[in-house]
């Protein structure tokens, strides 16, 4: 058994760093799945609202961050309702990252999942991530580099997937 003590001031959840927010979400998910227990009561007025594991906390998103909308059936991406021209691999890479939020992928895992093979150099992934970031724009948080590991979808990414017709 592992005991972890967290002391994170929750005066204003918006002021938390993305890393602290991920830590709190992971702890909530473990509690909801019954994989953890709270030792010592936390006053109800100081306890964060419970959020189901398959939902993210609702909070006002900054209107200045453009939103991406993936239309999976037509393999197209809209940035604030404007078409974004992506190559097949850029689209597949974006769709894979968005389909697995909060998960970090190594370059080799991305080669397997997106390219379908491992024989290309792992730096190929770096090139495609750089091109994807460039096409989406620097004002859109999209792909986060996890140094020494790989890539993940950014916490502040505003991306939706439409898998209908």
UniProtKB/TrEMBL annotation:
<keyword id="KW-0902">Two-component regulatory system</keyword>
<keyword id="KW-0597">Phosphoprotein</keyword>
<keyword id="KW-0804">Transcription</keyword>
<dbReference type="GO" id="GO:0003677">
    <property type="term" value="F:DNA binding"/>
</dbReference>
<feature type="DNA-binding region" description="OmpR/PhoB-type">
    <location>
        <begin position="60"/>
        <end position="155"/>
    </location>
</feature>
<dbReference type="InterPro" id="IPR039420">
    <property type="entry name" value="WalR-like"/>
</dbReference>
<keyword id="KW-0805">Transcription regulation</keyword>
<keyword id="KW-0238">DNA-binding</keyword>
<protein>
    <submittedName>
        <fullName>DNA-binding response OmpR family regulator</fullName>
    </submittedName>
</protein>
<feature type="domain" description="OmpR/PhoB-type">
    <location>
        <begin position="60"/>
        <end position="155"/>
    </location>
</feature>
<dbReference type="Pfam" id="PF00486">
    <property type="entry name" value="Trans_reg_C"/>
</dbReference>
<dbReference type="InterPro" id="IPR036388">
    <property type="entry name" value="WH-like_DNA-bd_sf"/>
</dbReference>
<dbReference type="InterPro" id="IPR016032">
    <property type="entry name" value="Sig_transdc_resp-reg_C-effctor"/>
</dbReference>
<dbReference type="InterPro" id="IPR001867">
    <property type="entry name" value="OmpR/PhoB-type_DNA-bd"/>
</dbReference>
């Amino acid at each position: 058994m592992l005991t972890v003590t967290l002391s994170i001031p929750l005066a204003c959840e918006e002021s938390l760093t993305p890393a602290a927010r991920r830590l709190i979400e992971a702890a909530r998910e473990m509690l909801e799945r019954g994989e953890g227990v709270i030792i010592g009561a936390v006053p109800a007025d100081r306890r964060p609202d419970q959020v189901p594991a398959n939902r993210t906390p609702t909070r006002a998103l900054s209107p200045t961050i453009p939103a991406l909308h993936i239309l999976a059936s037509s393999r197209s991406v809209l940035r604030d309702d404007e078409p974004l021209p992506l190559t097949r691999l850029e689209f597949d890479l974006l769709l894979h990252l968005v389909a697995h939020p909060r998960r970090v992928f190594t370059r080799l895992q991305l080669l397997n999942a997106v390219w379908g093979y491992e024989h290309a150099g792992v730096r190929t992934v770096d090139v495609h991530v750089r091109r994807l970031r460039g096409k989406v724009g620097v004002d859109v948080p999209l792909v986060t580099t996890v140094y020494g590991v790989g890539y993940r979808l950014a916490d502040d990414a505003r991306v939706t997937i439409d898998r209908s017709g």
